[in-house]
Specification:
It is a single chain. The chain has two domains: 2-34; 70-184, Nuclear Transport Factor 2, Chain: A (Roll). Helices cover 30% and strands 36% of the residues. It has helices at residues 2-13, 18-34, 70-81, 105-118; strands spanning 91-97, 101-104, 121-135, 138-150, 155-169, 172-184. A six-stranded mixed beta sheet has the order 2-1-6-5-4-3, covered by helices on one side. α1 packs antiparallel against α2 (18-34). It is elongated. The N and C termini lie far apart (59 Å).
Length: 185
């Protein structure tokens, strides 16, 4: 504050700067008012939902997911990571992806980015017991999840019934096929 007063006194005392002195005085006053005020930039972010999934847990006829199977853990990790991360590494190099047909992992990454842009706030919760069937070298997993999606304008909640086909590729589980049926609440 003393530096501002010093400069203000010098400017006001000099006759050539007298007209500018009033402007400097006003600026000095404004600066002093805001010195201890933290100004946060406005961000164009969606509203933060207090708890968008308050009631999306298992319904009366659904049970929590058993955590005992490697495939179950893989499926749960996939949906949990889908809330906030790039999940393309869960997929094989080529995947029969929803209604898009056979696509590359890069297309999956692009589709996920588009979904994230449309719904920046996403929560998924696997419910029920995944039904896992092994057919040859492929695990067919039927699972249900509850979801809440939110953006700047709206919130969507519902249920998604998923069929994932998972294969071991180079010793790692990879999704090779995914289908989904969505029911909105």
């Amino acid at each position: 504050m003393s530096v501002i007063k010093f400069i203000l006194n010098r400017v006001l005392a000099h006759p050539a700067w007298a007209g500018l002195g009033v402007l400097v005085a006003v600026l000095a006053l404004i600066i002093s008012l805001f010195q201890n005020t933290k100004i946060e930039p406005k961000r164009n972010e969606p509203p933060v939902l207090q708890n968008p999934l308050v009631n999306i847990g298992p319904k009366e006829n659904e049970s929590p997911v058993p955590q005992n199977s490697l495939i179950s853990k893989f499926v749960i990790a996939y949906f949990e990571n889908s809330q906030s991360e790039d999940v393309s590494y869960f997929f094989a190099d080529r995947v029969d992806y929803y209604s898009m047909g056979i696509v590359s992992r890069n297309i999956i990454r692009q589709d996920a980015a588009k979904h994230e842009k449309k719904w920046p706030n996403r929560t998924y919760k696997v419910v029920g017991s995944p039904q896992i069937e092994k057919v040859g070298s492929t695990y067919i997993v039927n699972t249900t999840l509850r979801f809440a999606l939110a953006n700047y304008k709206r919130v969507r909640t519902g249920r998604a019934d998923n069929i994932l086909k998972i294969q071991m590729i180079n010793g790692t589980q990879k999704i090779v096929n995914v289908r989904e049926t969505v029911t909105l609440d």
